[in-house]
């Protein structure tokens, strides 16, 4: 039975599905660069004629990489418009029918009605609603399913090895929307999915000499699902959000924050695998201890890796942001290690924003 604080009984993020142009190559990238292991596959060999998907897993992180097999397919049109990016942030629920019906009663737009799929491993129920841009949320009911992922998927054998990167879970997923639309989507997550606003950052918090953005963090009743929503604010030049909207072709997922228990080891592993990170000026670290207090890590160790630190009343966090993972300046990842803090690095916004602007300037998009 759903709790009053979480009317749809959302248990967490089940998986994140990416639409890409070449799933085999993208799966290879996420395996070798992020250390996610390919565990299941569906495509022509399993009787699926229009698409191919690889499921990659590392602890509580599950990425589903999907590509079209036909040139006139809807997935191909999605990739042509947006490039490689996130299509579906799927949510694990106890009852997909009840969650879908509740969402529709609350004003959601249905994309796929509850659909049952079965095989010898059990039963999956899945339903889908629309959110910002072409992004969707699927409700996935899988409590009694014992297969590798879903009916129609086969186990990948032999399973290719993946490097250990320390990634453990999805901490939060950030969406970018057009100017003036943030409140609409805050209301959507509040009224349709029962989320509450956790934090609000305005253009005074996140701004530089040239550009600014506003952000609100929405969280479900259990606190397991966190979705910050960004919109651009007026500035002298093009903000990172405007750059994203231009190159993605509308609203979409800007970045996925991945949690680790040892950010230094994770950054070393990812950087050696070819993940490029944003550089932070050395001056950021000169007064770090005065700003955030005592921390367990060596400041020189963090300086060498360009890792940011922020503290709130509950503890501190360490974070670092990659450059875009794809050709377009759109999707990137954040690596985060929490040591008590439940915040989002407010004290780092200016340094981070300036670092992102330096990358924009290199691309000629500032």
How is this fold's topology laid out?
Elements: E1 10-19, H1 23-34, E2 37-42, E3 51-58, E4 61-68, H2 74-82, E5 85-93, H3 96-105, E6 110-119, E7 122-130, E8 136-141, E9 154-155, E10 167-176, H4 182-191, E11 196-201, E12 212-219, E13 226-233, H5 240-248, E14 252-260, H6 263-272, H7 288-292, H8 299-305, E15 308-312, E16 315-321, E17 332-339, H9 349-363
Keywords, separated by commas or semicolons:
24% helix; alpha+beta; 366 residues
Radius of gyration: 20 Å
Total number of strands: 17
Strand content is: 35-45%
Q: By helix and strand content, what is the structural category?
A: alpha+beta
* Low-pLDDT segments: none
Distance between the termini: 50 Å
Characterize the overall form: globular
Order of helices and strands: EHEEEHEHEEEEEHEEEHEHHHEEEH
Report the helical percentage. 10-25%
């Amino acid at each position: 039975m759903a709790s009053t604080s979480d009317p749809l009984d959302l248990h967490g993020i089940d998986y994140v599905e990416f639409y890409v142009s070449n799933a085999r190559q993208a799966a290879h990238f996420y395996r070798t660069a992020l250390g996610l292991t390919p565990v299941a596959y569906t495509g022509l060999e399993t009787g699926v004629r229009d698409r191919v998907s690889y499921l990659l897993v590392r602890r509580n992180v599950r990425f589903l990489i999907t590509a079209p097999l036909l040139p006139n397919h809807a997935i191909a049109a999605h990739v042509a418009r947006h490039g490689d990016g996130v299509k579906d942030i799927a949510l694990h629920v106890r009852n997909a029918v009840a969650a879908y019906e509740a969402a529709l009663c609350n004003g959601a737009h249905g994309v796929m009605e509850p659909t049952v799929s079965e095989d010898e491993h059990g039963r999956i129920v899945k339903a889908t609603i629309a959110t910002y841009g072409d992004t969707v949320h699927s409700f996935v009911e899988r409590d009694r399913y014992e297969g590798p992922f879903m009916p129609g998927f086969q186990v990948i054998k032999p399973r290719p090895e993946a490097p250990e990167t320390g990634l453990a879970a999805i901490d939060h997923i950030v969406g970018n929307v057009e100017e003036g639309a943030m409140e609409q989507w805050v209301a959507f997550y509040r009224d349709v999915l029962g989320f509450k606003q956790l934090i609000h950052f305005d253009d005074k918090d996140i701004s530089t000499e040239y550009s600014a953005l506003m952000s609100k963090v929405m969280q479900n009743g259990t606190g397991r699902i966190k979705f910050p929503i960004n919109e651009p604010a007026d500035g002298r030049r093009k903000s990172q959000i405007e750059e994203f909207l231009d190159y993605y072709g509308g609203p979409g997922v800007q970045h996925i924050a991945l949690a680790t228990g040892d950010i230094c080891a994770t950054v070393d592993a990812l950087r050696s695998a070819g993940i490029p990170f944003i550089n932070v000026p050395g001056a950021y670290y000169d007064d770090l201890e005065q700003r955030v207090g005592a921390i367990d890590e060596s400041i020189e160790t963090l300086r060498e890796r360009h890792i940011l630190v922020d503290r709130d009343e509950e503890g501190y966090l360490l974070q670092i942001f990659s450059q875009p993972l794809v050709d377009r300046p759109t999707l990137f990842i954040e690596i985060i290690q929490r040591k008590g803090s439940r915040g989002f690095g407010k004290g780092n916004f200016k340094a981070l924003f300036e670092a992102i602007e330096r990358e924009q300037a290199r691309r000629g998009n500032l």
